[in-house]
Amino acid sequence: MDLFLNLTINGLATGMLIFLLAAGLTLIFGLMDVLNFAHGGLFAWGAFSGVWIFTATNSFLLAVGGAILTGLLLGALTEKFIIQPVYGNHVQQILITLGFMLVLSELLKVVFGPNQLAIQTPAYLAGSWELGKVIIIKYRAFIILVGFLVFAIVQLILKRTRIGLIVRAGVINKEMVQAFGINIKRVFMYVFMAGSALAALGGVLLAPYSGVVYAEMGMEFAILAFIVVVIGGMGSFPGSLFAAILVGLSGSFMTYYVPELSLAVNMLLMAIVLIFRPQGLFTVKG
Predict the structure, then answer these.
(1) What does the DSSP assignment read for 88-142?
(2) Least crowded by CB within 10 Å, which of 57, 191, 244, 259?
């Protein structure tokens, strides 16, 4: 039982990190119908900028804020110059964002150097709690808390606020929203920036979790994010949370019990879902 709880906590922490990346991807696709394969690059830039700020200031709070700001700025530039010209064309979106993903990865090496950057867990989040034989690592508990908090805040904004109503209405009929004098293009840019900020937040939170950051991490985690989006259902925010937790837990248990399948389990999960429920576990109407 103690081993089960430890593996569950580890899986939840990993799942929440994946969720923060997949959440932004789901937000962008579900509300804007944009396939952004450069999303992993924004994740990596959040990680690198956060590590750099933390090393310079020794303040994790500033590092998180700086990473989110980086995500917002890069998101605005990406939407303006990369996404806007290809709205409505998925093939062009895939090609141009894949290319931009490679550009972002190489720019990381130019700005921060080609080597990995190491980072330590902040002192107040280091260590663990012991509950009997169950060891709860503080930083992993912190990640789980942040993940659920982000989910609750985004759901609240989308379902209970005016901006959420405008965004959802804009997805259904953007011409009608524009007829009310609302600049829907600006609203969509804000949505893209929010999704990019979530990716950057996931990156900076991953850094102390893994101990190092590297330029290729964006592509690796972007693959996981797309697996989560496919499993959860394209455009479903609750589906992304459920799928991310499922992927995190399966990886945690497989790594311990059947390590030979730990790398293949995510692809296997996606294949099973695509065979029996190709629209994903959670379906968004329309």
Answers:
(1) T-HHHHHHHHHHHHHHHHHHHHHHH-SS-EE-PPPGGG-SEEEETTEEEEHHHHH
(2) 259
User: Which residue do the tokens 């576990």 mark?
Assistant: 281
- pLDDT tens-place string over residues 202-242: 999 999 999 999 999 998 888 888 899 999 987 788 999 99
| Run of H or E including 19 | helix 2-32
Report the distance separating Cα 251 and Cα 233, nearest Å: 20
Query: What is the tens place of the pLDDT at every residue in 80-139?
Result: 999 999 988 989 999 999 999 999 999 999 999 999 999 999 999 999 998 877 788 999
CA atoms of 141 and 144, how far apart (whole Å)? 5
pTM of the predicted model as reported, rounded to 2 decimal places: 0.92
Q: Where are the domains of the chain?
A: 2-276
Instruction: Answer whether 195's CB lies under 8 Å from 31's CB.
Output: no
Q: Is 285 helix (H, G, I), strand (E, B) or coil?
A: coil
